[in-house]
Amino acid sequence: MLELYESQRAMRTMRKAAMQRGVVAILDVGSSKIACLVLRFDGSDMADESAMSLAGQAGFRVIGAATTRSRGVRFGEIEMMAETERAIRTAVQAAQKMANIRVDHVIACFSGADPRSYGLVGEAELEGHVVTEQDVSRALSSCDVPDIGQGREVLHAQPVNFALDHRSGLADPRGQMGQRLAADMHMLTVDAVAVQNLAQCVRRCDLELAGIYSSAYAAGYAALVEDEQELGAACIDMGGGSTGVSIFIKKHMIYADAVRLGGDHVTGDISMGLQVPMASAERIKTFYGGVVATGMDDREMIDTGGDTGDWEHDRRSVSRTELIGIMRPRVEEILEEVRAKLDAAGFDHLPSQQIVLTGAASQIPGLDGLASRILGQQVRLGRPLRVQGLPQAATGPGFASAVGLSLFAAHPQDEWWDFELPVDRYPARSLKRVMRWFRDNW
């Protein structure tokens, strides 16, 4: 665990260095698109927490933005290194050109990689009667870390709640009086190979990795409004290759998971069902797609068009009802899988059960109604918080992860490695074997 702790601290140090230079790039590596935003920090007080609630006042401005079609990524994980490297270079270079500035540091996010959540508890007797930074560190380092298994890696480890003596629900106990401090921590682990591949790919593009996040976490942070984050809500981030699920309460993520299905699978079904190429299927889905058929849809004919050169074959048309009949079963399957993840997480025990759909695939007409039927809760469509300088083309639900990552760049939430661990108290169960890669690769 010590290597992991040091590697994450090293990335935090790099983020601070990038902030001092005033420029950092955000990279959202998805299955259908790779998005890059270049942020300029204006040197305003980054510690001003109230800035977070005011969109566009987060202490930075987007000065470059670019997207390119993703290549070599499946289910949110890199499959072909050279292809993905080319796509990342294309997006970063286009964003740098727009910003007219060179970028060395990137903060990246990715989906998939089989995320698993753990809730850990630790406690410490206070040496004085006032809670200090060291007391918080001791409470966190006393958490008994589970055996997360071979080939897994800790991506996030966040204190989500503190209790001082009998008072629980404290966000930050430092400076308060008491005898005994307890801490609850949420730990998210992912498949180590997926993270190593992304780190390697970024390094091959001559960029420094200044942070790595889960897309589901970033999307939830951008798409949920403050009350939803506080009272409890789930964010369903429907991407191309996978659908991320994250649950927030008290402004912290307490659970994350992913379903290996997304908008690309719907496109694939249309391609198979209508016998058209994937590009045509994507166009048909975007312009005519839906999940709720009405009587009118029988009469609305869609020209499938094709490029086989066989004029008779290419001149077919289908009714919109037929298209909806192809799309709906797959969308229902994705939502049923999401329902199973939420049930497994005990989402129905939260005080508030708002569900927010975001991600590019959430824009299918009628999806919110279908989702509220299958998930059995109130559902709304979420767009990311508006941030200063973001081009109009990048304000849709497909950019929730990129915007969330921008907000993290300016205001990272406290993670376990932000606290100085007492030397004699590294976690109760050593996980040195988990993360040797950082030592080997950096």
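the 2nd protein, sequnce then structure:
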Amino acid sequence: MQLVVLGLNHRTAPVDVRECFAFPEDRIRLMLRRFKRLDRWFEGVILSTCNRTELYAVVEDAQEDLEVIKRLLARMAGEQYDEAYFYCHVDSACIRHLFRVAASLDSLVLGEGQILSQVKSAYALARSMGTTGTMLNTLFNRAIAVGKRVRTDTRIAYSPVSISSAAVELAKKITGDLTLASVLVVGAGKMAELTARHLIENGVSTIFVSNRNLERAQNLAARFHGIAIPFEDFLASAENADIIITSTGAPHYIIKAWDVAHILPRRMGKPLVFIDIAVPRDVEPEVAALTGATLYNIDDLEAVVEANRETREAETPLANAIIEDELAALEERLSYLSMRPVMTQLKDKMDFLRTKMLKRALVKLPDLTEQERRVVERLSKTLLRKFLRDPMMAMQDVAGTRREAFYRRAIKELFNLTQLGEEEDGDETTPDHWDEAE
């Protein structure tokens, strides 16, 4: 058996193509059910996000079986399917790829944390549908642990790499504790919404929102349990704010040095911080020269973001070293796991037959003492271990080699490995005939 991943992501496919493969949960369930019916497809997990869709599978032969999976995927996706958008990794390359995904090394934003929870959710869904087994359970549990280890042992996720998150991080450094800060957000667009979200995540209990369109300000404030302020009143509210974050689309300055100069004396020496993330700028540059006022604009934030991005990228060699270390350990463990289902099936069948025959024998020996019964049962278990030792060692030796498929088929045929309880009637009566002959 082989591990494979077939997928596309933000590097291989444009957004209009990725949208066609961003499957909702009900669609994923349908696909997993269809894949489950394929004869040579043993296990599978589908990971689908806005930036990637990937199918992880355990198949008999990657070269042959991937063609079947591709055709089924093409039928599910429709006209947008184009093989040129997809990548495929097998065995070690598949493991390394999933480890990199879980560690956010393959993300659009290096070090982002959402992908790890998405990997967990995709695995949990597949497991709930019974499409995972020994190999993918082992792989995904290890990948999740690797993702956590990379985030813990490196600084790859420590520094913000978006303008909105950098603005909030800067506000946190200035105030020391955002839970005690009064924050006014001027603007109600996408950047203002992202900033408000980051503020809430960092402990701000109340956000004041102002916008020329009061309804938009009210809608944004409602989403974050904030308070909307009419645009004509925001300067008066600024008097009580600790931090003012501006992100409007105004073509001119909406906060001028003259306005701030009149606000500062009424603040009784309490500093006022402006973080202007608008382009064109919202705050007149001369504000920075006023005593008691601090001004950061988009250039300041971009410099912070670039420095943070470089910090994250500097951590990638350490993260890659962790991944290679974990890969080597998992490969060693998986070297025999691919044969474990057959080994387990053989052991279970032999133990099932041992127990059945033991019960029959004990019925015919009613005068045995309890100690004698235990001796007979121990003998049966010892014989079972002796009989299974050589085939078990042989299967473990060929696991992960080119002889694995041949041995797996041979063991199944030689020992007639059907589901427990499906043995034919003739099999059950044979031991009794032997008793009569004796």
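Confidence is low (pLDDT under 50) at residues 419-438. The two ends are 45 Å apart (CA to CA).
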